[in-house]
Amino acid sequence: MKQSLLFVPTLKEAPKDAEVKSHKLMVRAGLIKQTAAGIYTYLPLATRVMKNIEAIIREELDARGCSEMLMPALQSRDLWEESGRWSKYGQELMRLKDRKDRDFCLGPTHEEVVTHAVRDYLNSYKKLPLALYQIQTKFRDEMRPRFGLMRGREFIMKDLYTFSESQEDLVYWYQSMKEAYTDIFKRCGLATKIVSSDTGQIGGDEADEFMVMSEVGEDTITYCTVCDYAANQEFSQLNSGDKCPVCEGLIETAKGIEVGNIFKLGTKYSESMNAYFTNRDGKKQPVIMGCYGLGISRTLMATVEQNSSEDGIVWPKELTPFDLHLIPINIKDETLSEKIDSLYKTLSLKYRVLIDDRDERAGVKFKDADLIGIPTRLILGKSLLEGSVELIDRYQNTKKMIFIDDLEDVLKSLL
Ligand code: ATP
Ligand code: MG
């Protein structure tokens, strides 16, 4: 891909309202552009990274027996009246009317719609279990949209719902999704801590949150310095210096970004919305549900926060928008230009390559390359005429000259 054709509006200065590093960087690197408070356009680079995150999610979930579907964002009041949440959800729900003056909302979450989707079908235990997910835009009129993609009013979420005949089966799915999330976040270059949480608005039995430990996180986590106890402070009510409720060890607190959330919902929605099935004893029983959210746009932002310096991003291997960034500099003659072109074509057969073909000074290209953050770069200058290029490896923070003849092997070991 030619950089001149890719829309990457990099900026020298971060916008004034950007408080955290990742927000500043995402705007400066030409990843996102705000259109209204908490509402963003994802520009081509961000879209590429997001597609990579989505591919990882699909792989991990499909491998565990989940199926992808797509539900409507526009939801009728009738469904929300069935669950009782039309009045309970409060001001975060984006409400609107159609031309016939009927009430609708833009889905902040999809328990109602998914229960509606399966309830006529789930008449027998033979149809269970089911694990259904979607990747979709969610709408929440957050009181304080802020920190860029961290707390948006429109954001992208993967939401998954499981349907089980028994509590044991729910526990099985809950555990399986916990493992899936752990693997997904690891592949996204994020270390997460699993903390138990209050079930809050959704209601249910047990819940865990996946937290990225970070100073800019909005949640406070209380954790034990001795055992693996960890809970959201909203739930544990503990403070730093308190005794661990499990082992009496010392409690510490830290800030975290919640990137994912898993709930044992139980029968709240199946009872209120009439999703019953005939069990193995021939009796009618409400289906037992679980729900599992993962904020894709927030994960993107957390990834930037954790994998960057003030000067730029260093994309984790599986998320990078391109494998290789070629940066031609000081091209004065035809021969060099032809060599660069031929190298670009050869490498593009094997890798996702971005070439900075813009008519800009080397300094401008280097600064932008640092911002954009493709971890493996080749500087193509005069030395190419003698058969070598400079390789920059941002993971190791090294620069070295490589003979073109060795390039294939070197890249094979890196990419
Ligand atoms: P929070 O406590 O941050 O408001 P939540 O408990 O409301 O989150 P869920 O309803 O469980 O979140 O949504 C699942 C996931 O969606 C969250 O773990 C988070 O990653 C993401 N998410 C929730 N709200 C937002 C938002 N306003 N902007 C971006 N991502 C969000
Ligand atoms: Mg919320």
**How would you name the CATH homologous superfamily of the largest domain?**
Bira Bifunctional Protein, Domain 2
Mean pLDDT equals 95
- Beta-strand residue percentage: 25-35%
Computed structural class = alpha+beta
> How many E strands?
23
Shape label: elongated
What's the alpha carbon Rg, rounded to whole Å?
Answer: 25 Å
Helix content: 25-40%
The stretches of 5 or more residues where confidence is low (pLDDT under 50) are: none
Structure description:
By secondary structure, the chain is α+β, with helices and mostly antiparallel strands. Helices cover 30% and strands 30% of the residues. It has helices spanning 21-28, 44-62, 77-83, 85-88, 111-118, 167-187, 233-236, 268-272, 296-306, 334-350, 362-372, 404-414, and strands at 32-36, 39-42, 67-68, 74-76, 94-97, 103-106, 130-139, 154-164, 192-196, 206-213, 219-224, 230-232, 251-266, 276-278, 284-286, 288-295, 308-309, 312-313, 324-328, 353-355, 376-380, 388-393, 398-403. The strands form 6 sheets. Strands 3, 7, 8, 9, 10, 11, 12, 13 and 16 form a 9-stranded mixed beta sheet that branches. The protein has a 5-stranded mixed beta sheet with strand order 20-19-21-22-23, sandwiched between helices. A 3-stranded antiparallel beta sheet has the order 4-6-5. Strand 14 and strand 15 form a beta hairpin. The structure holds adenosine-5'-triphosphate and magnesium ion. The site of adenosine-5'-triphosphate has 15 residues, from strand 8, strand 13, strand 16 and helix 9.
